[in-house]
Amino acid sequence: MKKEVSGPGINKKPEEGCIVYGLFMDGARWEDQDGCIRDSLPKVLFTEIPYMHWTPCEKQKDPTDYDRVYKSPVYKTSERKGTLSTTGHSTNFVATICLPIAPEDTAKFWTQRGVACLTSLDD
């Protein structure tokens, strides 16, 4: 069964790459106006991350400025733990994604806050 993807600015399947959606951020929030992560709002534990268009590229041609991103882990659940697999990662770990940070922030700032992305919330 083919699922149609819709959302702000999403009209059709991309020519290259994929549309990723349904992720949540724990410990921070996405700020559309600035295009980066910011502090969570008071009393808001989790926020939804907007649709993302991921495109593959060769590492040598990657335009990402790795000094201006936070390498956020993505976990299946908010528990953030699981049995260690043979790779040394938790079975709850999915991937690492790079999220843009504000000019006044550092990746270390967000690491100390324990910011992570989740594929699902606890109910």
Describe the structure concisely.
The protein is mostly beta strands and 123 residues long. Helices cover 5% and strands 29% of the residues. It is globular and about 35 Å long.
Number of helices: 1
Distance between the termini: 27 Å
| Global Rg | 15 Å
Helix content: under 10%
Helix and strand succession? EEEEEEEEHE
Structural class: mainly beta
Largest sheet: 5 strands, mixed
Unreliable sequence segments: 1-5
Mean pLDDT: 86
Shape annotation: globular
State which percent range the strand residues make up.
25-35%
Describe the structure.
This protein has one helix at residues 107-112, and strands at residues 18-20, 24-26, 29-31, 36-38, 46-48, 52-54, 69-75, 93-100, 116-118. Strand 3 and strand 4 (36-38) form a beta hairpin. It has a single domain (18-118), classed as Hypothetical upf0131 protein ytfp, CATH 3.10.490.20. Mean pLDDT is 86; it is low at 1-5. The chain has a five-stranded mixed sheet. It has a two-stranded antiparallel sheet with strand order 1-6. It contains one helix and nine strands. By secondary structure, the chain is mainly beta. The two termini are 27 Å apart. The protein is globular, with a radius of gyration of 15 Å.
Features:
Hypothetical upf0131 protein ytfp; two-stranded antiparallel sheet; globular; 123 residues; 29% strand; single chain; five-stranded mixed sheet; mainly beta
Describe how the helices and strands are arranged.
Blueprint: E1 18-20, E2 24-26, E3 29-31, E4 36-38, E5 46-48, E6 52-54, E7 69-75, E8 93-100, H1 107-112, E9 116-118
